[in-house]
Amino acid sequence: MKLFITCPKGLELLLEQELADLGAQEIRQKVAGVSCEGELELAYRICLWSRLANRVLLPLLEAEVETADQLYAMVSEVDWLEHLRPSGTLTVDFNGQSKAINNTHFGALKVKDAIVDQVRNATGQRPSVDRAAPDLRINVYLHRGQASLALDLSGESLHRRGYRLKAGAAPMKENLAAAVLMRAGWPDSERFPCLVDPMCGSGTLLVEAALMATDSAPGLMRQRFGFSRWLKHEQALWNQLVDEARQRRADGLERAELQLFGYDADADVLRRAGENARRAGVERFIQLKQQPLDELTLEASVSAGLLVTNPPYGERLGETSQLMHLYRTLGARLKAEFGGWQAAVFTANPDLCKVMKLRAEKQYRMFNGALDSKLLLFTVHARSAEELAEAEAASQGALSEQGQMFANRLKKNLKQLSRWVRKESISCYRAYDADMPEFAVAVDIYPGHAVVQEYAPPAKVDPVKAFQRLQEVLQATAQVLELPQEHVILKQRKRQQGQQQYERRDETGNFFEVEEQGVQLRVNLHDYLDTGLFLDHRPARRMVQKLATGKDMLNLFCYTASATAHAGVGGARSTLSVDMSATYLDWARQNLELNGLSRQQHQLVQADCMKWLAEHADRQFDLIFMDPPTFSNSKRMQDVMDVQRDHVWLIRQAMKRLRPGGVLLFSNNYRRFKLDQEQLADFVVRDITASTLDPDFKRNSKIHCCFEVRHPI
């Protein structure tokens, strides 16, 4: 029999070696697969034992195909009653296209029709389609006018062993995990008496390592294969191979002396890892522990082994700076605790590994689905005296020359702002805002804390250098402000889409209260990109507080209603605050309660502000504060809002609700915003931006714009 065995790209050489070990002949590598020859027993062995394959295909026919009729004719040449019962079930996997066949669903339909028509004409019965568990799975590949028709003897992809029902957020497929372990040299009990995965997720690497070390066939856990109801299936031969595999597994489990350790900061995925290990029958070899990476230490019972891991490497699981911090921590823990060990790190972003400060001895290119990835292999050497001295200096907080430059500028800014801060009794303010091009960050001061916001660097900037500078910023900020490192919070600012600015980023729930102009406000420095208090709007809030005395005030796009709290403390007769977010309205409610403002007098409404403006023409106000986002496409909105496009409509609708003699304060933070003076000529509009910038934001005068809009007298 000629067979074609598919696998993920990059695993072809490993698969060739595996097939040779299983007894295959005439082995040839292809792209994402290997062809070989052997008896039916070989096909069964591959299905049962291959740790790398996806599918085992038995080619039936190849022919030139361009049109649907040619495809139909080709499929009709096979005697399908040799493979399928007249009343059986089938499904077709069709890949590729031609000029006449440019839709895979159409191609699969033509193949199915040819098979069904032949069987019905010969027997009067027609097979049916069953995509979930067919008796026969047919595979067709069409490329450059050449079609290949094959039976899929594996059925469901062989990477699905049967032990993993749920995975983590970015799971690694089982056959890719096995390939990573093979490339790292596992199993080798003399070199690697122990294996550690410090970010184990749902435990795929650990379970695959245990199956390999115990000589457990990965196919033993599967309930069904593509050949199970194939008419040429030889059940006796299959039973013999399964019995042999069961005996080998029993022997392997009995003699195995394995120490496998898995750690993760997420208790939920660790629970899944334990469940997966139990289903695979290897739970007694795997010790799982909830532990963050920065606490990774070598277990007392082991002295050498293999550390293998698949850390996060994309925006799916974190921002670049946070990921680099994670990789740097991994490198630091390896050097501190795992001298003499081998380490294998699989990533789709090898640049992240540069911050580990370890030199890869070998690199292997592999594909994780469509992601071009690399496996990097390291030998972790015991640290030299120079490295120990460097680490000691870092732990003592010694700044680099560049770090000291940043520290000096931050000190200078703090000194310049100190008199103003004391005079105005300000506790939250901006101390640095990209003053030096090489340090593109903003530093905001809060009582006992600092928030460092990194502006996303341009693509041309080396991400490793950008990361190293960011670490210097964090270290210098903590030293200058005399704060514990954990009280310096890092965030990354980049171009936001839709409601990303307001999405939850963490679940700490760490709120605390700050005071501004006699107003108490709650802030959260961890869980969202913004803290609940826009510092640059401080003068606008003061203005609202002074103007609100005895007035009815409307706050549109109110966020956490800090401006409303100022209005209430300033003596507003009533306030109405509108926002779409239930989360922020609850935050707003707490801000109002902090200041003793009653719900009856100060109302909160959850609504799309544009829709609310269109539907509530009856309400009139003396003071309106409106600070819309630059852009919003929230699911709760009926349409997309663009502040540049929609500001005329927003202002006109708001002015319909403004009483004579009242004032609308219209603000936004779109840096290229241009007010359409012509379409708003029937109002008195004054640009008051300069007066809404306190000294801490004078260096960044484009952070927002603000206009005062009144009815003509």
Which key features would you list for this structure?
713 residues; alpha/beta; VC0802-like; Transcription Regulator spoIIAA; 4 domains; 8-stranded mixed β-sheet; 17 helices; 24% strand
Would you kindly provide a brief summary of this structure?
Its main location: cytoplasm. 32% of the residues lie in helices and 24% in strands.
Question: Could you describe the 3D structure shown?
Answer:
It contains 17 helices and 30 strands. The chain has 713 residues and is α/β, with parallel strands linked by helices. It has four domains: 2-152, VC0802-like; 174-213 and 257-389, 3-Layer(aba) Sandwich (Rossmann fold); 398-494, Transcription Regulator spoIIAA, CATH 3.30.750; 511-710, Rossmann fold (3-Layer(aba) Sandwich), CATH 3.40.50.150. It is 32% helix and 24% strand. Strands 2-3-1-4-8-7-5-6 form an eight-stranded mixed beta sheet. Strands 11-10-9-12-13-15-14 form a seven-stranded mixed beta sheet, with helices on one face. The longest helix has 24 residues, at 401-424. Helix 9 links the parallel strand 12 (306-309) and strand 13 (342-347). It catalyses: guanosine(2445) in 23S rRNA + S-adenosyl-L-methionine = N(2)-methylguanosine(2445) in 23S rRNA + S-adenosyl-L-homocysteine + H(+); guanosine(2069) in 23S rRNA + S-adenosyl-L-methionine = N(2)-methylguanosine(2069) in 23S rRNA + S-adenosyl-L-homocysteine + H(+). Pfam families: Methyltrans_SAM, RlmL_1st, THUMP, UPF0020. Its main location: cytoplasm. Residues 42-153 form the THUMP domain. Specifically methylates the guanine in position 2445 (m2G2445) and the guanine in position 2069 (m7G2069) of 23S rRNA.
